[in-house]
Amino acid sequence: METPSNLTDLMDLSSTLAKIETETLERVRNAETIDAIAAVTAETLGKRSVLASHRRGLAEMAPEDRREAGRLLNATIARLGEVIGEKRTALDERLEAQRLDLESVDVTLPGRVPARGSHHVVRQVMDEIVDIFVSIGYSVVTGPEAETDYYSFTALNIPPTHPARMSTDTLYLDYGENPEDVNLRPHTSPMQIRHMEKHDPPVYVVVPGRVFRRDALDPTHSPVFHQVEGLAVDENITFADLKGTLAYFAREFLGAKTKVKFLPHYFPFTEPSAEMHAYANGEWLELLGCGMVNPAVYEHVGYDPETITGFAFGMGVDRMAMVRHGVTDLRHLFDPDVRTLDQYR
């Protein structure tokens, strides 16, 4: 498009305007985007456009030609403005139609419900275990994850020479004057002592929580895992009560026809002690350890072992989750891939 010079002749102006109009109409027809039509508008009708330059040049024309030249210029500007406006409207409508097509919503379809989260499978199993015991009268208590040597071992009748007290088994914290005074609790049993110190019999509690041991991560072990401890202390509690309670739990957790058996074992804080096995997934599996509370434990909390008796039990929640869901590798339960955990919703 040519740059105008000082035009003083109406014929030259008319010819120039006709050429500008022809070129502009061609550009408008070829414009396919809002940006393209905006460029045509700026170059044709803008403050720095050719037509604006012609408008400023009217002052240099002879007075007798100025009126006619202004009429020709205004008419050209009006026609081009109308054509450009129509093209802009058509492009806006086409763009809006495309947007509506892309963003269309079929109101007859069911609404999209956002995916809901869920508890981790270990938390689900822990809550179920706790609920079973709560349903038969047990209360839930929790305690600190950093414990003293006294509550973790001494008060539970675990002798100083026991392997569990060594740093190869227990994680000790650099806290206080003696580096072996405080540890990350290796079991939730310390809360049995803490609770009995503050409460007289009868006591029926379960203690869920996270525990720590110096174990390498493999298909059946983890340095961080979860336990549920249980304690029942009252008058005239017998081993038969222990067996009945835990057999009931197994049937509630694994099914009404679940078979259980008790095998002799040893724990410093119970006497006699046993392991409870259950027949699940086509084989006998160890579920938990249990036993009658050792009278030596009562001495640490001020209970009279001549008048009260009781039993305690403890189970690994992670193992219970593996039994429940047929998981063969403990590490699968802590796989960060959401697709793995989605199976246990």
Can you describe this structure?
The protein has helices spanning 10-30, 34-45, 50-57, 63-102, 121-134, 149-152, 190-198, 239-254, 295-301, 317-325, 338-341; strands at 139-140, 146-148, 182-184, 203-212, 224-234, 260-267, 270-280, 283-293, 309-316. The protein contains 11 helices and 9 strands. The protein has 2 domains: 10-102, Methane Monooxygenase Hydroxylase, Chain G, domain 1; 121-344, Bira Bifunctional Protein, Domain 2 (BirA Bifunctional Protein, domain 2), CATH 3.30.930. Helix 1 (10-30) runs parallel beside helix 4 (63-102) and helix 5 (121-134) crosses helix 10. With 345 residues, the chain is of the alpha+beta class.
Outline:
The protein is α+β, with helices and mostly antiparallel strands and 345 residues long. It contains 11 helices and 9 strands. The strands form 2 sheets. A 7-stranded mixed sheet has the order 1-4-5-9-8-7-6, sandwiched between helices. Strands 2-3 form a two-stranded antiparallel sheet.
Keywords:
about 350 residues, alpha+beta, Methane Monooxygenase Hydroxylase, Chain G, domain 1, BirA Bifunctional Protein, domain 2, 2 domains, two-stranded antiparallel sheet, 9 strands, about 40% helix, about 20% strand, rod-shaped, disordered N terminus
CATH level 1 class label of the largest domain:
Alpha Beta
Helix-strand string: HHHHHEEHEHEEHEEEHEHH
Q: What is the residue-mean pLDDT, rounded to a whole number? A: 87
Counted up, domains total 2
Number of strands: 9
**Outline, from the CA principal axes?**
rod-shaped
Secondary-structure class = alpha+beta
CA(first)-CA(last) distance = 70 Å
CATH superfamily annotation of the largest domain: Bira Bifunctional Protein, Domain 2
As laid out across the biggest beta sheet, the strand order is 1-4-5-9-8-7-6
Total of DSSP H or I helical runs spanning 4+ residues: 11
Q: What's the CATH architecture of the largest domain?
A: 2-Layer Sandwich
Oligomeric status of the shown chains? single chain
Helical coverage, percent range: 40-55%
Write the CATH fold name of the largest domain.
BirA Bifunctional Protein, domain 2
Largest sheet: 7 strands, mixed
Low-confidence regions: 1-8
Computed over alpha carbons, the radius of gyration is 43 Å
User: How much β-strand is present in the residues?
Assistant: 15-25%
